[in-house]
Amino acid sequence: MFKKYILPLTILFLLGAISTIITLYKLSPCITYDPVNFCKDYYSIAIMAMSLSILLSLTGILSLAGYLIRWRFYRSEIFSNHFNIALRQGFLLSLTVVLALCMMVLSIFRWWSILILIGLIILIEFYFSGRENT
């Protein structure tokens, strides 16, 4: 089970973390910084590369953390159920963070827009949770 599930997820996290570090040091996403809008001018390719690498690394680490928490408290349940739920929730949380960062770079980050984004992610999670129970 470790080789089938946990090892690929750990490799995904490490690749994402390494690519995030390389992207931040080699490709600066912002050309000019603005104290109000955070990023006045930006490179589209650098933003996409940074977003993808952050998505990979956060998905890996949040999925591993979610799995370990579930494994600790619910040892009597099936292994793959824990892993699937943790992977889905880790991806949704990382997608929320990446979309919030992209909104910040594009200067469209407002408190109500992040509430709408979180509401959509919660609705998606409710949909998948409801499908599992039936």
Strand content: 5-15%
Radius of gyration: 17 Å
Biggest sheet: strands side by side, in what order?
1-2
Total strands = 2
Percent of residues in helical segments?
over 70%
The biggest beta sheet, please? 2 strands, antiparallel
| Separation, N- and C-terminal Cα atoms | 26 Å
Tell me, briefly, the overall form: flat
What's the domain count?
A: 1
Mean pLDDT: 85
Low-confidence stretches: none
Order of helices and strands: HEEHHH
SS summary, helix count: 4
Helix-strand category: mainly alpha
How would you sum up this structure in a few lines?
By secondary structure, this protein is mostly helical. 78% of the residues lie in helices and 7% in strands.
Walkthrough of the structure:
This protein is mainly alpha-helical and 134 residues long. It contains 4 helices and 2 strands; from the N terminus they run αββααα. The protein has helices spanning 2-26, 44-73, 79-105, 111-133, and strands at 30-34, 38-42. A two-stranded antiparallel ribbon has the order 1-2. The mean pLDDT is 85.
Secondary structure layout plus pairing:
Blueprint (H helix, E strand, L loop, with lengths): L1 H25 L3 E5 L3 E5 L1 H30 L5 H27 L5 H23 L1
Antiparallel strand pairs: 1-2
Helix pairs in contact: 1-2, 2-3, 3-4
